[in-house]
Amino acid sequence: MREDCASIKWTRFGLQHVIILFETWMNIHVYIGGTLEVVHALFVGIACLLNYFEVLGRDIGLAEGVPDLKKCTEVYRSIQIMEKLFNGYLMVGIVPTLIVLMPAAQVLTQFVSIMMHSDIPMPSFLMFPLVWLNSVMTNILVFTLAS
């Protein structure tokens, strides 16, 4: 053990711990409020539709006659209707927000990370590269996979 580590004294539970707990609680609410629609509506909806198509492909492979293929066609039409409803919701609710805010967040945080890195103190500066990485990954995953 180093000699300077022996001089460390732990503080009692005080105001600084209450502030840390409050900030953690607020961050959890911000993360849930900001990502709930994207994760639950966009990603889960896409995964659900892909699972339906996988089940449909398996049923088509197991179909033996015309009645089975007619049932598969009815299921496919139902999936098409569900996809149209899903796209209608996304085009109004989620996609416009992602199209406007994610590239703006990427450009803004990249500008701050490159041009203002010496003006912002270090603990606060780390927020900008993290938000940049989050917006880059969202742009790659959402826009690239959507096209």
Features:
147 residues, mainly alpha, 2 domains, 5 helices
User: How many β-strand runs?
Assistant: 0
Helix content: over 70%
**Overall 3D form:** elongated
Main beta-sheet annotation: none
Q: What is the typical, i.e. mean, pLDDT?
A: 85
The percent range for strand residues is under 5%
Counting structural domains, the number is: 2
- Unreliable stretches (pLDDT < 50, length at least 5) are none
Content-based structural category: mainly alpha
- How many helices? The count is 5
CA(first)-CA(last) distance: 56 Å
Q: Report the order of strands and helices.
A: HHHHH
Radius of gyration, whole Å: 25 Å
Transmembrane segments: 28-53, 86-105, 125-146
Keywords: Membrane, Transmembrane, Transmembrane helix
Summarize, please.
With 147 residues, this protein is mostly helical. The chain has helices spanning 15-62, 66-93, 95-115, 122-125, 127-146. The mean pLDDT is 85.
What does this molecule look like?
It is a single chain. With 147 residues, the chain is mostly helical. The protein folds into two domains: 93 residues; 53 residues. The chain is built from five helices and no strands. The protein is elongated and about 80 Å long. The mean pLDDT is 85.
Secondary-structure map with pairings?
Elements lengths: L14 H48 L3 H28 L1 H21 L6 H4 L1 H20 L1
Helix pairs in contact: 1-2, 3-5
